[in-house]
Design goal:
The complex is a heterodimer of chains A (about 200) and B (about 625). With about 200 residues, chain A is an alpha/beta fold. Chain A is about 40% helix and about 20% strand. The chains are: A alpha/beta (about 200), B alpha/beta (about 625). At the A-B interface, helix 1, strand 2, helix 2, helix 3 and helix 4 of A face strand 8, helix 11, helix 14 and strand 21 of B. Strand 2 of chain A pairs antiparallel with strand 8 of chain B.
Chain lengths: ~200, ~625
């Protein structure tokens, strides 16, 4: 099976580790080999959290610079920071809702303009889907579901080799029952937003 | 029931490497487990801790790694299957018992896990603990994948019982923190009570006994070498004149590279999973068929030097390379593209790497370093010490924990860190060697781990410094594990004792001891100032539970604050304490009500009293 390499970047607390667990479960249901690696030492202290997910026949569980087939960014400046993981062939999906780091508040940096971020990524990579996942998450019922909104967008745009139904089943298995309806709703909203993006 | 206790052989489940290792230990019938938590090993012990509450497995968070290993050594010498796990630098703390336990050996299977951290994702160094196996004469196993880690720990217990020797299981972060599908196996029954049989000529290491033991140890390692020669964990894959010798996660980078470069038919790969003692005959045989050999290993040239020595003995002059300027580095971790490129260079294969994106026009992206949490009491304490010290010329030795982050601007409280507990002992040295005022910081868990002995030294040698003990009631950094000062009833557990830090410090003979509540800013500054002026050893205990932990245990009900119209933009709040709940909107300071927990420290330092509770 052809290998697909996915990098997910997020800020600690955005729920990308749960998103990768759902993807892992979806791969299990679909019979797609998968290996994942996470760096989360400082996740709860506002640092960057990165997951590498390798679907298919390759046996490594990490992804080198320039070798991501898909980049899913939970925060626009983090998506931009992860451009070194991409090549001209990479599909990029990003949230446009910003979470400026505290270094910006204390005047140790300027947050880049989101329109410029989109323009840069679009010019350099194979494709870009940019959605306000925070807005959609709130629409689904809680800012906490931003991860599932982005998962919806990923499943619509990426070529992960498994069906929407399998991901929905994985959400069923891997997320808390109390939040299931909200998460399914969030997934649909993200899926639709990616489908309609650019139309 | 805990998912790792499911008696469901054949079940396929996605597990974190550390969960797979914990499950492997359970399948092996482990009865006794000890640790001091440390990333990247922490989830192994967390899972065992949880499982011990639902089963007859004995698990303890010991005060430090030396204690953990000694507790475990006794259990393993009472015939129990025993598991002791720690991060790589923890093994330095445990090195004293380790070296002589190797002489004494064990009667029950004992596995010691060292979680190495190449690239230092969450560590102060990237030492290569494979040398401990060689140094101490311990058989060593190194998994290359998550599922293999589970199988390897099971074999490690068997091997330990076969040799009556503790076995070192060495992982790296990319095993501990990777996820993969794992298939559950059968669970061996646990034998939870043992019997110690007196054998003074094995267990009492006076010189006359130790001399005998050293000789027996070498015999055991000879036997281990025989097992390593034929171990399934040392497989040769493929055939050809190009040879690759590899360990750990690099195996998969090499396998992928050989496939990608189209040299699979001409390449053979020896993976050393049973890597101490090295399988000498196997390696010599492997070398004989090769024209060139590349050794791929993160860290130090542990295998490479041995392989070169074996080649010399075998009279082989083929090129053998690994660490060099053109090839592999001793620094950091490896990745698939790097390994692919070096294999191509070494074996002379055409290879064009993916073109890097030109990022010259990408604007500078603001850094996102980890930060002390909103409402973290350490921030308040650092601020207060800084205010109390005024324009004193101070040195701030600090220690290992969340509070190490206090060294970042704008707090800038942290000048020297080398290892757990070093804040106290280095304070002794700085106080004696300079005329600067020394104020040091240590967390409660770290104080129990190895700060106490430094403080005893300070009292005895009459040193001169102020030690701030940050008592937040938990081991916060590694994910909220208990320590000897914790009220275990909060975990819903009884039958535990509790050590009171204040009483302990007074009993040690510290004459100037004060307590502060760091969220009471003015009062704390006054108390700290008095302690700083004391000549001799003074201790300040800053008491406030970890906000993250308190929130998760529902001990703290957040009540957010806001910036009112009275704000005239001094920005003392942002510029001096830099809580992550602050943000700027149209040039004005705001507070994020979703993350503010209401510690009210900023409200107490605002010169206009502009920060007030948010009324909902």
């Amino acid at each position: 099976m052809e290998t697909t390499r996915l990098i997910m970047v997020a800020v600690g607390g955005q729920g990308n580790l749960l998103a990768s667990k759902v993807l892992g479960e979806a791969a299990l249901i679909s019979g797609v080999p998968v290996r994942m690696s996470e760096i989360h030492g400082m996740a709860q202290r506002g640092g960057v959290v990165e997951s590498a997910i390798v679907f298919g026949d390759a046996t490594s569980s990490i992804i080198s610079d320039s070798e991501a087939d898909i980049l899913l960014g939970f925060e626009p400046s983090e998506t931009l920071r992860a451009l070194n993981r991409c090549s001209k062939d990479t599909k990029v999906i990003t949230n446009t809702a910003t979470l400026p780091p505290f270094t910006v508040s204390i005047g140790k940096g300027v947050y880049p303009d989101v329109e410029n971020i989109k323009k840069l990524i679009k010019a350099k990579c194979a494709s870009l889907v940019a959605i306000d996942a925070m807005k959609l998450a709130k629409e689904a019922g809680s800012p906490m579901s931003v991860n599932i909104v982005l998962l919806g967008a990923l499943v619509q745009s990426g070529s992960l080799g498994f069906t929407k139904e399998n991901v929905i089943e994985a959400i069923n298995r891997r997320t808390k029952k109390a939040f299931l309806d909200m998460n399914l709703n969030a997934f649909e909203l993200g899926y639709e937003a990616a489908q309609n993006y650019g139309n | 029931m805990h998912k790792l206790l499911n008696d469901s052989p054949g079940e396929e489940i996605m597990l974190l490497g550390n969960e797979a290792i914990a499950r492997g230990a359970i399948e092996a019938g482990v009865a006794f487990a000890t640790t001091y938590p440390g990333t990247p090993s922490s989830e192994i012990s967390l899972n065992l801790f949880q499982m011990s509450q639902e089963s007859d497995l004995y698990f303890e968070y010991s005060t430090n790694e030396k204690v953990a290993l000694e507790v475990a050594a006794a259990a393993a010498n009472s015939g129990l299957r025993t598991f002791c796990m720690m991060k790589h630098v923890g093994l330095n703390v445990a090195a004293d018992p380790l070296m002589t336990l190797a002489y004494v050996g064990v009667t029950g299977g004992m596995v010691i896990l060292t979680a190495d951290d190449p690239a230092m994702f969450s560590s102060q160094n990237e030492q290569d603990n494979r040398y401990y196996a060689k140094f101490g004469n311990l058989p060593m196993l190194e998994p290359s994948s998550v599922p293999e880690a589970k199988e390897m720990i099971k074999y490690a217990f068997d091997l330990s019982e076969e040799l009556n020797q503790p076995v070192l299981l060495r992982t790296t972060t990319r095993i501990n923190h990777s996820n993969a599908f794992v298939t559950f196996g059968e669970m061996k029954p646990r034998q939870t009570k043992g019997k110690f049989i007196r054998e003074p000529l094995r267990c009492v290491t006076v010189p006359a006994v130790a001399r005998q033991l050293h000789s027996k140890l070498l015999d055991k390692m000879n036997k281990a070498k025989g097992l390593s020669e034929t171990s399934d964990f040392n497989p040769v894959e493929g055939s050809g004149k190009a040879g690759i010798i590899v360990n750990g996660v690099s195996l998969h980078y090499a396998l992928d590279a050989v496939e990608d470069l189209g040299i699979k038919d001409n390449t053979k790969i020896l993976r050393l999973g049973f890597s101490n003692p090295m399988p000498e005959k196997l390696i010599k045989e492997f070398l004989k068929g090769c024209e060139k050999v590349l050794v791929i290993e993160e860290g130090e040239p542990f295998m490479e030097e041995a392989v070169k020595a074996f080649a010399q003995e075998a009279g082989l002059t083929i090129p053998i390379s690994g660490k060099s300027e053109a090839l592999f580095s001793r620094l950091y971790e490896y990745d698939p593209a790097m390994v692919r490129e070096k294999i191509a260079v070494f074996f002379g294969v055409d290879y064009t790497p993916k073109t890097k994106l030109d990022t010259a026009d990408v604007p500078q992206i603001p850094m996102r370093p980890p930060n002390l949490c909103s409402g973290c009491s350490h921030r308040a304490t650092f601020y207060e010490v800084k205010q109390a010290a005024g324009d004193m010329d101070i040195i701030c030795p600090t220690d290992i924990g969340c509070y190490t982050l206090g060294f970042l601007p704008p707090l800038n409280m942290g000048d020297f860190v080398i290892c757990m507990g070093s804040s106290v002992s280095t304070s002794c040295g700085f106080g004696q060697a300079t005329d600067q005022k020394v104020v040091s910081f240590i967390g409660d868990s770290t104080f129990f781990h190895s700060g106490i002995t430094g403080l005893v030294n300070a009292v005895f040698n009459n040193h001169n410094f102020t030690l701030v003990i940050l008592e937040n009631d938990i081991t916060a950094m590694t994910g909220h594990q208990p320590h000897p000062g914790v009220d275990m009833e909060r975990f819903g557990l009884d039958g535990f004792g509790r050590v009171n830090i204040e009483e302990l410090v007074r009993t040690l003979g510290v004459e100037h001891v004060s307590i502060v509540k760091p969220f009471k800013v003015k009062k704390s500054i006054e108390t700290i100032r008095e302690a700083l002026e004391y000549k001799g050893v003074s201790v300040i205990i800053s008491r406030e539970p970890c906000a993250l932990y308190a929130k998760s245990m529902k001990l703290l009900k957040p009540r957010a604050f806001k910036v009112s119209d009275r704000c005239v933009d001094h920005r003392d709040c942002i510029n001096t304490i830099a809580c992550p709940s602050f943000y700027l909107e149209a040039g004005k300071v705001k507070i994020d009500a979703d993350t503010c927990v209401g510690c009210a420290v900023c409200a107490q330092i605002c010169p206009e009293n502009a920060i007030t509770p948010l009324k909902k």
